[in-house]
Amino acid sequence: MVASSPFSRGACLGVGCALWLSWLALHVVGDPTLPKRPTPFGFLGECREGWLLSPDGTCSPCPAGTAAQTIHGYNAYTPPGYATGIRCIPCQPGWYSGQNATQCQQCPYGTISPPGSPNCTACAPGEFQPVLGGNVCQTCRPGTYSASGARTCTLCAPGQIQPLPGQTSCNNCSRNFYMGDPGGTWCRRCPLGYVSEPGSDRCTPCNPGTYRDANMTYCQPCAQGYFAPIAGMPRCEPCPSGWYQDDPGTLGCKACTPGWTSTPASTGCWPCAAGRYADQAGMPTCVPCKPGQFGPSGGLSLCVDCAPGNFSDWVWSGLPYQSWPATQLSQCTRCPAGQHQGDPGKSYCVDCPQGYFSGTGDAQCAACPAGTSSGVASTACTPCPVGYQAPGEGTFVCQGCRQGYYNPTPGTPECLPCPAGSYGYFAQSYCIGCPKGWFTPFDGVSRCTMCRAGTYANSAVNATHCKLCPSGYISNPASATLSECIPCPVNTYQPKPGNTTCLPCPPGTSTCQIASARCTDLPCPPAPPTPPPRPPSPPPTTPPPSPP
C-alpha cells in the first residue's frame, strides 16, 4: 500500500482525487462476480487478492513473478504517472512468485532467482547458496565440492583432495600418497619405508625384512646380505663384518662361527687365513696371531704357541693386516745360532751368555768345554790360545798361565808347571831354562834362584841345584861351573867346602900350591914357573824380573 494515496476509505480530498474518481467511474466496471460498492460517482470494483483491476474494468491475475499491491483491501488500477495505487510488483532478486500471488516467496537454500522470476534456479554443481532469498551462487573453494542446488559445499573425505575451486567431486590420492584430514587440497607423499593404496588417509609401514626407497612403488624384501630389523625401513642395512645372511627378506643376520669372518653385506663366511684367528662368533676381522704364536692353517679359533727354540715376533708397519707377510704369522722362526728360548709361546730369543753357545733353533745354550771360551751370543766356542787355559766348562774368558806355568797347545784345559831348572812368565807357551849360576829346585817356579857364594851350578842352563865349591876353593855368587870356583892362593887355605874366603896359613906353615885345603910345615919343593894370572870372570847376568 502506498502511503501517499490521494484518498482514504469513504473520502476523497483534492482536485486530483476528484478527477481520478471521475475517470474511474467512467471506465471501471469491475468484476461482475464481486459486489459493487457505492461511490460518489457510482460503484468501485473489487478484484480478488492476487488479481489486477485493469482499465477496462476487468480483473486479471498478476503474472508469475509479481505480486498484487492493495489499498485497504481494494484492488485498483494505477494510472500512468502515479506512484500510488494498485499494481503487480515484480519480485526482487532471490524471491519468486507463482500466478495470482499476493506476495513473493524467498528462494530456498541452494537456489537463486533474478528480479521478477516465477521460480528459483538451483545453483550449478560446484556452487552453493547458503541463505534464503539468495540471488548469487558462490563457488566452492578448493578442498570441497557440491552437487546441483547445494546449500553448502562438502569437504573432501580423508584420502581425497580437490586443488581447484568450483568442482563437483574430489580426487583420490595416488598410490603412496595420502591425505589424513578432510578438505585437503593436496596429497602428502608417504615417507620412504611406507606405502599406501590409492585414496588412503594414512601410510602403512613396510614389514620388517622389507623396505621401500624413492624408486620403488611397493615394499620389497631385503636382498641376501642385507636385513631390515624394524618396520618402515627406507633401505635395508648391510650385514656387518663377521655376519652374513643367505636368505632374502630377513630381520637380522647370522654370526660367522669362530675361525671364520666376512665383509659387510656378505651372503656367506670364509675361514681366517693362516696366521690369523677369530676366537668368537661374529668377529668383524680375523686377528693376527699374537707374538709368540702362529697359525699353521686357516679357519682357526685359536693360535698355537711357538715351541721352545722358536719365536714369533711381528712388528706392525702401519699397513692393513692383510698386507703382513703370511710367514710371520703362519709359522714360527727358529732362534738364530747364538740365541735360545726354553719356553713355549715366546716372541723373542735370548742371547747365550758368555761361556755358552747354541746352534739354530736350540732351546738351551750349551756350556763351552774345558779349554775353550765364548762371548755373548756365540755360535761356537773358541779354543784358548797357547799360554792360556780354561780348566772348567762354561768359561767365558781364558786365563793366562800363571808364572811358573805354560801351555804349549791351543785348547788345552790346564797349564803345565815349568819343570825344575826352568821358570815361566805370565801366559807363557814355553818355559825358560835358568841361566848359569842360577837354579830352580822345583817344578812350577816363576823365577830362578842365584847360586849363593861358595857354590856353583852344575851346568850352564836348567840347573836344578848348586854344588859346594870343594875345599881349597871359594866362589862368588852365581858361579856356573867348578872352574868358576876360585882356588885359594899359595900360603892360604880353606879346609871346608862351600866357603867364600881363603884362610892364611899360620906362622911357620905354608902351602906349596894353590887350592890347598890345609897348610904344612914341610918345606915346599921348587915351584914351577908361575903362569900368567887369569882375568876374573864377569858377573853373571841377572834374569829379568817376572811379571806380576
UniProtKB/TrEMBL annotation:
InterPro entries found in the cross-reference section: Growth_fac_rcpt_cys_sf, Tyr-kin_ephrin_A/B_rcpt-like
Pfam families: Ephrin_rec_like
Signal peptide limits: 1-30
Renumbered residue ranges of the record's region Disordered: 527-548
Domain (Tyrosine-protein kinase ephrin type A/B receptor-like): residue spans on this chain: 143-185, 480-517
SMART domains recorded: Ephrin_rec_like
Alphabetical keyword list: Signal
Record-given protein name: Tyrosine-protein kinase ephrin type A/B receptor-like domain-containing protein
